[in-house]
Give the backbone structure.
Amino acid sequence: MIPYELYHLLQCPTCGARDLVVTDAGVHCASCQNDYPRHDGYLDLMPRAVEFSYVSKYVTEEEELSEELDYRDLAPPLLAAGVRNRALVRMLGLQPGDIALDNGCGTAKFAAWNADKVRLMVGSDPATLFADAAVEQVALAKADSRCLPFADNSFDKAFSLDVLEHFPRDVIDSYLSETARVLRPGGRFFVMSNTSDPSSLQPLTDASRKLGRLLVRAGLYDFQREARRKSDHIKALRTWQDVLDAMQQAGLRPVRIVFWNSVFTSFVEHVLMKLGEVVLGRMNDKRRTMKEQADENVHHSSFIAPRSEGTHREIRARQRMRGRLERRGPAFYALTAVTLLMELDLWLFGALKSGSYCIVVEKTASETWRP
Ligand SMILES: [Zn+2]
């Protein structure tokens, strides 16, 4: 959605001017004369005539990934996404009066899940693979995090989940300094990402992985889709110290830190859930008609790269599961229980350093001073 309040926050992403004019077609910059069109549910606020050396895979392969990511329907926040969302809510403390930014929102699921907790929820991403529920509830902008289209000190809160690990270091630095710029002094920023730091509980995690791999060898499922999702992880912030240094450089002071050693999580993801997906996918396979199969073959014949049978099965299992979850039946409560089991990792091992981390940082007052 594009609520009127969003226009009050904007500045030109190309020249930084604030004299923007709202037009029938979108927004016009009176200073550099660029136009930013309004689309169905979002504003296109990408900087004009700027060439970046780094472009996310989600932008360059948007069309192909839109097929694979299965992004339009939003399930309730459960499993790993549920743990993330609960950590976000608990650690960031969104308030009813807040203006909040999901910086690099992707489908904007985290923004959509929490939109009713704040005055205005804004989602920003260069790719426009927004979930339907996000288009309904979140103020969405197609934007580049290196030149955010928002004025200084616009937001009370900001958050970033699974973003930093995709960027090279120079992009991380611009991303953090831009986030700090648009946060008000004292404003807080929640980040969840991962470094290459080892966890002392790694042997426990590995045991689940090994069990998972045995299942792969038995042909029960494959990890192709998961590997693809992680295929552009760079982890330019290699160690925890790198994270702290980058935050400090951007004028962001750590307030709270919780590590995510995936002991329970790994068991759930690599063993429990995968088995569940296989079972549900197979049940679904039997029920599919010949016609559906024929349609699918035609659909995937030409320009879209063929997905593996494992990926098909996983997506089908997910779609089926979503239907059940909507109805808040036994599956919903079972998965809620599993989500809480995974969350034990944060409660029990949150102080033990590991690669995955959640951090809340605060914009220090001195950052508002500009030469
Ligand atoms: Zn301009």
About this structure: The pocket of zinc ion is lined by residues 12, 14-15, 17, 29, 31-32, 34 (CB under 6 Å). The CA atoms of residues 186 and 363 lie 5 Å apart.
